[in-house]
Amino acid sequence: MMKKVYTRTAGIEADMVSGFCPGCMHGLIFKLIGEVLEEMNLLEETISVQGVGCCGLAMEYVTYDNTTAPHGRACAVATGIKRTNPDKLVYTYQGDGDLASIGLAESMSAANRGENISVIFVNNGIYGMTGGQMAPTTLVGMKATTAPEGRNPAMHGYPMHMCEIMNQLTAPVYLERTSCNTPANTRRTKAAIKKAFQNQIDQKGFSMVEIVTSCPTNWGLNPMESLEFLNEKMLKEFPLGVIRDRS
Amino acid sequence: MAKKFMKGCEAIAEAAVRSGCRFFAGYPITPQNEIPEYFARRMPEVGGSFVQGESEIASINMVYGAAQTGVRSMTSSSSCGISLKSEGVSFCASARIPIVYCNVARGGPGIGAIQPAQQDYMQATKASGNGGFRMIVLAPATVQEAVDMTYEAFDLAQRDRNPVLILADGVLGTIMEPVELPPMRSDEELRKLREETKDWALRGHKAGEKKLILPGGWQGQEDRCKANAAMYDTWEKDIQVEEFLTEDARVVIAAYGVSARVAKSAIRLLRKEGYQVGMIRPKTVSPFPYQSFDKLDYGRVKAILDVEMSIPAQLVYDVELGVKGRCKVHTCLRSGGEIMGREYIVNAVKEIYNV
Amino acid sequence: MERNLMAAGFGGQGVMMMGKLLAYSTFSATDKNVTFFPSYGAEQRGGTANCYVVISDNEVGAPLGDVMDDLIVMNEASLNKFLYKVKPGGLLFINSSIVKKPVERDDITVIPAPVTELAMELGNAKVLNVIMLGVYVGYTEVLPEEVVYETVKGQLAKKPKLIPLNEKAFRLGTKIGQEARKDRKGLV
Q: Do residue B58 and residue A106 have CB atoms under 8 angstroms apart?
């Protein structure tokens, strides 16, 4: 008698094949979110807001209600949904360009209001869908199509650390930076997502999980190389850990 | 029902509440601040939500979010603030989300003047955002009309699953007039109205009946454009127009909103002096009442006078489409915060009357 | 029958409240149509503040006239700016405490009242607008005195302590207006 030890989460469509690039971590993160929602018995009570970027592909993959915001506006759209539906679980899923560049005002203001939502912020230091342009989180010296000589602080400034920036605000309850570079960190990421959702259920206010990931396609590296880059460069600039927990 | 003496902005907000608006997000800009201020006081009384957004862009997107769950939602702004909202409005039109928004228009282009103007006609009626969508645009001339139109706007928006714009101006926003308010919709009525959105609104769902709001998407864009166009074609029946003393008119004034109410005063003065003057006043500037201009007897009508608080003229392009070159169309224009004057119109009519 | 009034002065002289009280009185006590239109904006912040009231048997079209039947000026800047807005034969009410220069028109009726000084004599400079409202109502009889007084009283429902002062101010104004009317009878 075979024992079933693993099955795809009910949070992802059963026969869906993801279109994410090899080595991309979006698929893994959506799986984690699906598992958490399933474990918390929230799949029927969730409304998710997808940012603009590669993550938007997921709107076809997930099984719960979801919508897409204009680029950068996910936290504003989520605010409208949550204020009118306080009994639903509302989370946004946003990349670095979406959350930290075009949507900086919306993200910071939702955090500052202590909006009772959960933000999943996926930081890979580059614009993916549009093809490798410089992001607010691009590392110094890292090449991008709009910074062909690499990010130059004299012209482009330095990478933005959103967890630390939001940590200057009073209202947010939970800010943690994680990664999916190792099985252990992936489990930590799942636990962080769960905590962010639990905070919302408990009416505690704004939570954000920043997940540092890779973009092999636009980094110009193969999946293994990009994992190395992530470990050696990205995590130096964006150290993992709980930045704030007042839950 | 007893009348109340109310400021335009506040009357619009109260009418929205009575029509069932339970979410409002807005950002300060003169001359519409009394709308968000009113909602901030009023929403807690009716179990609704008010958010002062961090920008016009955030505010329209909050409304976009709330309306996706079937809650009647609204935002307002003025001219340059409305430009900022165009992103969200376009998303609503694309995803077919019913929202109501109000432009208490001021001068332009750019930051313009904070005083009343009608410089946003083209933006309101032709291109309120990217992508070539259309909306029903209601243009009230009195506070009473602003109230009635706001009340109706939520029903039109929900019927079509499309944004509806109230095109007001700084005069209408700040003037106080007697007004009769429509009845307050009960919680039970609102529950039913929300129930009608269940086929598309996001509320969470049982396994196997996934909901997805898709403002763009990878496939089916042309089909969605076709469906939108087919919906716009049904709006002929929604045209509202006032034809004032046009039966014997030799000169017909074309005007909407505040300019039209001033023109009405001017027409009364001119009629006393024996001038046969009338007016066609589009109450819906989109869809536009071309038919009213088309059916005029151009054997008798010698000229049209387009009266608007916009320089250059904008309404005039729609008027020309109705007149089709059958008589001369003149303009009588003010702008930059200068409010259209009665005598100004009287003189403009006299100048063209016998030419 | 339509009558329009413009009131103008410094920000802080209560010009808007004066217009609003008159408009609200008309609304609450008559079948006439009435509009109150405040001129808003930069002018509220230190410059001139002004508002328009139109009272009409018909629906009100233009909420402000290019020419006015009645003009109230509370400061000299307003007189300079709006003097020629008054129609020939119209009425000009002047705060003569502040406006010292002679009126350069002889085709209108001028009703001067030193409302700033009178208000200070009553012990509160803020009630100058209520005195001027009284002057206007006393002179024009556009509304019964008691109707307007009830509105003034209603406005102070939350500050009943101020009612006696405001009543004194209003009655003082109506008396000045009535006297002026007697003097002018048959002249214009």
A: yes
Per-residue pLDDT tens digits for B278-300 = 999 999 999 999 999 999 999 99
B2-54 per-position pLDDT tens digit? 899 999 999 999 999 999 999 999 999 999 999 999 999 999 999 999 999 99
Identical topology for domains B4-237 and B240-353: yes
Question: Is the CB of residue C82 less than 8 Å away from at least one CB of chain B?
Answer: no
* Percentage, residues of chain C above pLDDT 70: 94
- In Å, the largest CA–CA distance within chain C is 44
* Separation CA C74–CA C138 (nearest Å): 17
Hey, are the CB atoms on C40 and B343 less than 8 Å from each other?
A: no
List C-alpha distances in Å: C63 to B128, B276, C72.
Answer: 29, 23, 17
What fold, for A26-245? Answer: Rossmann fold (3.40.50)
Domain boundaries, chain A: 26-245
Contact A84 B25 (CB under 8 A): no
Q: What is the reported pTM?
A: 0.95
- Which among A162, B261, A61, A88 is positioned nearest to C65, based on CA atoms? B261
| Best mutation target, A47, A52, A66, A101, to test chain B (most B CBs within 10 A) | A47
B224 and C CB contact within 8 Å = no
| Residue tagged 């109310």 (tokens) | B6
Q: How many domains does chain C have?
A: 1
CA of C165, closest CA in chain B: separation in Å? 26
Report helix, strand or coil for B354. coil
Under DSSP, is residue A121 helix (H, G, I), strand (E, B) or coil? strand
CATH number of the structural domain spanning residue C138: 3.40.920.10
Mean pLDDT, chain A, integer: 96
Please give, rounded to a whole number of angstroms, the shortest distance from the CA of A199 to a CA of chain B.
Answer: 19
- The answer to whether B101 and B135 have CB atoms below 8 angstroms apart is no
**Domain ranges (residues) in chain B:** 4-237, 240-353
Residue B216 is predicted with a pLDDT of: 72
User: Which pLDDT does position C187 carry in this prediction?
Assistant: 45
Helix and strand counts by DSSP (H, E) for chain B: 13, 15
Beta strand pairing call for B284-286 and B73-77: unpaired
- Cα distance between residue C188 and residue C182, in whole Å: 12
Q: Do B176 and C36 touch (CB under 8 A)?
A: yes
Q: Write out the CATH class of domain B240-353.
A: alpha beta
Closest CB to B342: pick one of C27, C28, C65.
C65
Q: For chain B, list residues with pLDDT below 70.
A: 1, 217-218
Q: Does domain B4-237 have CATH number 3.20.20.70?
A: no
Domain that holds residue C133: 2-184
Calculate the CA A150 to chain-centre distance: 24
pLDDT in tens, A62-103: 999 999 999 999 999 999 999 999 999 999 999 999 999 999
B182 touches chain A (CB under 8 A): no
pLDDT at C41 over 70: no
